[in-house]
Design goal:
The protein contains 3 helices and 10 strands, in the order ββααβββββαβββ. The protein is an alpha+beta fold and 268 residues long.
C-alpha cells in the first residue's frame, strides 16, 4: 500500500481554542491584568513588648533637660546631667528670697539705729571762772566735748539747760549754748552759767574763789534735746540728760580739774 502524504497543518488561529470536557464547552480564560507600578509603601514591624500606653519615666527627664537648654539660650545648661531640681525658676526664687532678706535686715538695722541710738558720752575739757565783783555774781564757763557712738546716725543738739551745784546747792544756771561746729553731729559745746546776784555761796566755794587750792566738789547737770538724723532726714527727738561729778583744785580763773566722771542717758 502506497504511502499517503499527510495534509499540511492549518495555520494557527488567534481564536481561543474551545475544548469540551464531559460534554460542556469551557469558557475562555481571561488574560492576566497588566502589572502596575509599585507604590512607595513601607512596612515597619515593632515588637509588641515595646509598645507603650504610658510614656516611660525617662521621658520626663529628657523634657526637663530640653527646657533647661531652651532657657539657657540653646547652650548647654549648667544643671544638665546634675539634677532636675536645679532649674532657672528655683534659682530665681532663691535669689528673690535672698534679696528680700538683705532688705529686711537693712531696714531692721536702720530702725534700731533710729529708734534706739547709742547714748553719747560727755567730758569737761575746760572750766573758767569769772568772779565779777561789780555785778556781785560769779560766772562759770564750761567747754564740753561729746562723742557720738553711732556709726549710721548723727545727733543734732537743740535747746537745753544746765545747772552747777555744790552738795545740792545751786551755784549757777543757764542755757546750753549752740555747738561750736553747728548742729550737725556736733562734738564741742560752750556752756556759760550765771550765778545769782548777791547770793551767798557755800564756804568751800568762797574759799576756792578767794584763792584756796583745796579740792572743791562740783556737780554739772545738763538736759538737752537731741534729734536723730540719717543723712539729711530727721527722725525721732529725744531728751538727753548728762550728769558730771567734778573735783576742782580751787576756783581761780582757770580752774584745774583734778577728776571728773560724766554719765549720760536718754529720757522719755
Amino acid at each position: 500500500m502506497a504511502d499517503r502524504a499527510l495534509p499540511p497543518l492549518p495555520p494557527p488561529s488567534s481564536e481561543p481554542t474551545v475544548s469540551a470536557a464531559f460534554g460542556s464547552p469551557l469558557q475562555p480564560l481571561p488574560l492576566p491584568p497588566a502589572r502596575r507600578a509599585p507604590h512607595d509603601t513601607y512596612v515597619v514591624q515593632v515588637r509588641k513588648d515595646q509598645i507603650y500606653r504610658v510614656p516611660p519615666p525617662e521621658n520626663a527627664y529628657l523634657v526637663e533637660r530640653y527646657r533647661n537648654e531652651r532657657a539657657g539660650g540653646g547652650g548647654k545648661s549648667r544643671c544638665a546631667g546634675a539634677s532636675p531640681a536645679c532649674s532657672p525658676c528655683l534659682l530665681r526664687t532663691l535669689g528673690a528670697l535672698l534679696a528680700t532678706a538683705v532688705l529686711v535686715a537693712a531696714a531692721v538695722a536702720i530702725s534700731v539705729g533710729v529708734l534706739r541710738p547709742g547714748v553719747p558720752s560727755f567730758s569737761v575739757d575746760r572750766l573758767t571762772v569769772n568772779n565779777a565783783t561789780r555785778q556781785h555774781r560769779t560766772d562759770y564757763d564750761f567747754f564740753l566735748t561729746a562723742v557720738n557712738p553711732n556709726k549710721m546716725t548723727a545727733l543734732w543738739y537743740r535747746d537745753g539747760k544746765a545747772r552747777l551745784l555744790h552738795h545740792g546747792t545751786t551755784l549757777a544756771s543757764g542755757d546750753m549754748g549752740d555747738p561750736e561746729l553747728g548742729g550737725e553731729d556736733a562734738t564741742d559745746f560752750s556752756v556759760l552759767l550765771h550765778g545769782a546776784k548777791g547770793g551767798r555761796a557755800p564756804k568751800a566755794v568762797e574759799k576756792g574763789l578767794a584763792g584756796s587750792k583745796a579740792a572743791v566738789t562740783l556737780q554739772l547737770t545738763v538736759e538737752v534735746t537731741v534729734q536723730v538724723h540719717v543723712g539729711a532726714l530727721g527722725f525721732g527727738v529725744k531728751r538727753l540728760a548728762v550728769d558730771c561729778e567734778i573735783s576742782a583744785a580751787g576756783l581761780r580763773k582757770y580752774v584745774h580739774i583734778s577728776s571728773q566722771k560724766c554719765k549720760s542717758r536718754f529720757g522719755n
